[in-house]
Amino acid sequence: MTQVSTPAEAATRITGRAVVEQRRLKGAVTEVVLDSGDTVIVKRGHARNATAAEAAGLRWLGAADAVRVPEVRGDDDEWLVTELVGDGRPTHHAAERLGRGLAALHAAGAPAFGAAPPGGPADAWIGLAPMRNAAGEDWPRWYAEHRVLPYVRSAVDDGTLTGGEAEVIERACARLPEVAGPAEPPARLHGDLWNGNVLWGAVEVSLIDPAAHGGHRESDLAMLQLFGCPLLDRVLAAYQEVSPLADGWAERIGAHQLFPLLVHTVLFGRSYAGQAVSAAKSVG
User: Fold this and answer.
1) DSSP classification of residue 115
2) What is the pLDDT of residue 87?
């Protein structure tokens, strides 16, 4: 990885503009004011491929022209520079626009379940956890093999899932082909659509920090519900007006939440293990 010591140096090298002000926000994220008067976000990748995966994901989502995502101003092996997007209070108008936008984003499609964004790495990330993008044709089997079971194995190895809990989740995976609902084409997913990655504005919402890939559209919606989202009923109603969900979608929420709950179990420990097992039991 390129060794750059500060966010200011990275911003100048990538944008060609001098930095006049900077403010650390959280973790590896810094808000930088350039001498052009433009304000950008400078983010340092935490591991190999992290910056490339996020940059490719933002470009792919933005290319759908469906939901707002930060414009990528430049990136390299270590640093990502994007436009600054605002955050404010949720509004009904923005919630409905988000629902319609997500429907259009998902309809933009992907080459396959597990497809990485164009130019993005196969070995990508969801937050601080590794996420392998490997293509598959059948969603239930792909989801089990590449989005659930790898994290079950990791959690068992780390001692954050017991063998008995792992068996419950494995049985749920075996049931997925029967309960997954009608087959649908691969959707273009944000992939990490929890409320913390939803920045509200009066007119529209901006989505940040994607783990973009081809997947099932219900997965994005299930993740929105996982940790709570303001005005979610408005978001879902607007989505359904544009692209109605298949019958029984509400009963499948637990199946789609297995992946993020297991990621949280791997990253943050046993406090999420019980939720993952409960989600598995809901599969039927």
Assistant:
1) P
2) 84
Q: 7 and 15 in contact (C-beta within 8 Å)?
A: no
Beta strand pairing status for 187-189 and 213-215? antiparallel
The pair of structure tokens assigned to 200 is 């509200």
Residue type, 159: G
Element at 173 (helix H, strand E):
helix 163-179
- Backbone phi, psi, residue 98, to 5°: -65, -45
* Calpha distance 136→271 (Å, rounded): 31
- CA dist 163 → 123, 156, 168 (Å): 27, 7, 9
What CATH number does domain 7-83 carry, 3.30.200.20, 1.25.40.10, 3.40.50.460, 3.40.50.1480? Answer: 3.30.200.20
Which CATH number does 92-281 carry? 3.90.1200.10
How many whole angstroms separate alpha carbon 205 and alpha carbon 209? 14
> Which pLDDT value is given to residue 1?
47
| Alpha carbon separation from 173 to 120, 213, 223, 246, 272 (Å, rounded) | 28, 20, 18, 20, 18
- Where along the chain do the CATH 3.90.1200.10 domains lie? 92-281
> Which amino acid type is present at position 184?
E
Is residue 3's pLDDT more than 80? no
CA atoms of 192 and 40, how far apart (whole Å): 22
Q: How far are the Cα atoms of 7, 9, 77, 80, 121 from residue 1, in angstroms, in the given order? A: 15, 15, 5, 13, 15
Q: Which of 35-44, 83-92, 116-125, 137-146 shows the lowest mean pLDDT across its residues?
A: 83-92
Quick one: which of 111, 133, 114 has its CA closest to 122? 133
CB 82 within 8 A of CB 43: yes
